[in-house]
Amino acid sequence: MIISKKIVKAIVRWTLPEGFCDVVRRVHKKREILDRKARQTLASNHQLKDVHNGERCFILATGPSINKQNLKLLRGEKCIAVSNFFLHPDYNIIKPYYYCVAQCHSPVTEEAWQAWISEMADRTIDAAMFFSLKDQPSILLNGNFMNRKVFYLKFGESWDGAFVGDIDITRPLPLPQSVTLIALVVALYLGFRNIHLLGCDHDGFLHVYESRHFYDENKDVLVKKGYNEWYQRDLGEQFRAAYNLWLQYKVIRAYAQKNGINIYNATEGGYLDVFPRVDFSSLFE
Known about the structure:
Helix content is 35%, strand content 12%. It is of the alpha/beta class.
């Protein structure tokens, strides 16, 4: 037997205290408004669907191996940079089209985050930015990216069974272990057919309690503000993080293979063995 909504409302009205019903209505209305705003923000990402269909791109991470490669070759290429890549001396030559930033997390303070975001806004020129929807209030606070293209991504879902269908950045995504995974998801949504990874060394388990990037750590605003990448991390957490990272890369690899997309690791060295290797300089011969 199907009970109509009118009957259900009548039962609720005459069996539950009015005060209780008012509280439920207010809470539901507030959640509905927040969800609607999030949906509208994420829906704007649809304009990016397959805008680079069939093209190639380079994802620029921040491993120390990048110092061994001539990134000036990337002039005119479609590039997606991440994290502190704006510190690279050739940034203004490369001029990445897109820039992905990881979700703010402990032990980064709000003061450190705002200082970093301000420098990022000054140094990233006109790259379209991707931030976590969770960080939207902080991004809007000082208007650093007011006249820029800014897109937000919603994270928090499980990697179990992720991307069985199409990758869709207008909907919630699995929370990534590395910002490079965010860049890969964005690249796939943009429609790139050949994707090349640079600076994905992923050898932190060989350099425990040591922060290693292509730049001098003292130039990192977050470090200047007291950020410690290895805060409260022991060996067990380090190995678990590496294991999870590899599993997530494999999910991306499976999606790419299923859809006829090529992902190559053009990193000079490093330990990421999930994707086939390619010599960086050979890509420009």
